[in-house]
Amino acid sequence: MTTAPVHEFTDADPVVLPRGRARDAMWLAAAAIILALSLLAGLFIGDVSVPPQDILLDVLSRAPLLHIHSPLSAVDSAIVWQLRLPRVVLAALVGGTLALCGAAYQGIFRNPLADPYLLGVAAGAGLGATIAIVEVVNLTVLGVHALPLFAFCGALIAVGLAYGVGRSVGAGRSSTTLILGGVAVAAFLTAIQTFLQQRHTDQLAVIYNWILGSVATVGWSQVLTMLPYALVAMVVILIHGRLLDVMGLGDDAARGLGVRTGQVRLVVIGAVTIGTAAAVAVSGLIGFVGLIVPHFVRLLGIRSHRMLLPLSLMLGAAFLVLCDLLARTVVSPSELPIGVVTAIIGAPAFAVVLRTSRVHG
């Protein structure tokens, strides 16, 4: 394992950490500040004007031993804590998960154009959601509504099929066969979804509304539904950061260094699938987050997945919180689908990234 070179320091600047570690700490701190500011902006700004200082005083009033009186009315308090805060937290959770999963896929497949929907997650979730909307609208299982449940299961099934197809061709060793398996499965599931849509044209508006994405909530239920799956995916992906760096050398080289590439690929794909499926289940299909955020992080000169993954997580969370803020304020009192906002911002941003970075296929 190599370490960053130690540079010379003056007597007046007795820095102990190597410069590389100090730079990493700086980037992590900057990302944390950006995320915190975006969360505060999402909490402070909305259709109903609630003074930010009143929100801060209300936060302090909930702390023990301070004895501060909250200036918020019961209605304003409900708006802040039961509507805005769950929505902001959900947006951060979805954005961070998608960006982290996109970075992991780009590493595991050594393909800078990979995104979290690469192996058919979008097609599987879309078909599952369509079935829930047109067939079993009122079904609830263990308190979970049919739509997120069917979308989650559809996404898992799609990736399972894609992996099975790819493994049957390349014995699980080739990234290319997995990607091609995902393309085939996605095309097949999309065809079934299109067939169902044509037979239920009266439900098209509901289906397209879900496809365009939203992090609107009516409380904390959606956050709590997604949270355990997202946490599992995040932990598994983050602890595989160094192995993703090794696998970037190629499967043969990685195996020569003792890495079980097939096992690592399966574990990372499983974690990405769980995280992406959970995000899609509660928010619909939100594009570009998992594609452009890791590219933006690489523009900062960061290549190691040990740093790329956590920075993508934090900046992806901040990005989607700010996109949701635009979605609910630009045409207020109406709302734009958040998928439209991410596409409007993401498409030209990705074009700029392609022009300013060297993309290796």
Fold and architecture overview:
With 361 residues, the protein is mostly helical. Helix content is 70%, strand content 1%. The protein has a single domain, classed as ABC transporter involved in vitamin B12 uptake, BtuC (Orthogonal Bundle). It has a two-stranded antiparallel ribbon with strand order 1-2. A hairpin with a 2-residue loop joins strand 1 and strand 2. The chain starts with 18 loop residues before the first helix and ends in a 5-residue tail after the last helix.
The separation of the N and C termini measures 26 Å
Give helix % range: over 70%
Mean pLDDT across the residues is 86
The fold-level CATH name is ABC transporter involved in vitamin B12 uptake, BtuC
Q: Count of helices?
A: 14
**In terms of per-residue confidence, which ranges show pLDDT below 50 for 5 or more consecutive residues?**
1-18
Shape: globular
Largest sheet: 2 strands, antiparallel
Provide the β-strand percentage band.
under 5%
In the CATH scheme, the class would be Mainly Alpha
Major beta sheet, strand line-up:
1-2
Number of strands: 2
Query: What Rg, in angstroms, do the CA atoms define?
Result: 22 Å
Secondary-structure content class: mainly alpha
CATH architecture: Orthogonal Bundle
Please trace the helix and strand order, writing H or E for each element: HHHHEEHHHHHHHHHH
What is the CATH superfamily label? Answer: ABC transporter involved in vitamin B12 uptake, BtuC
Number of domains: 1
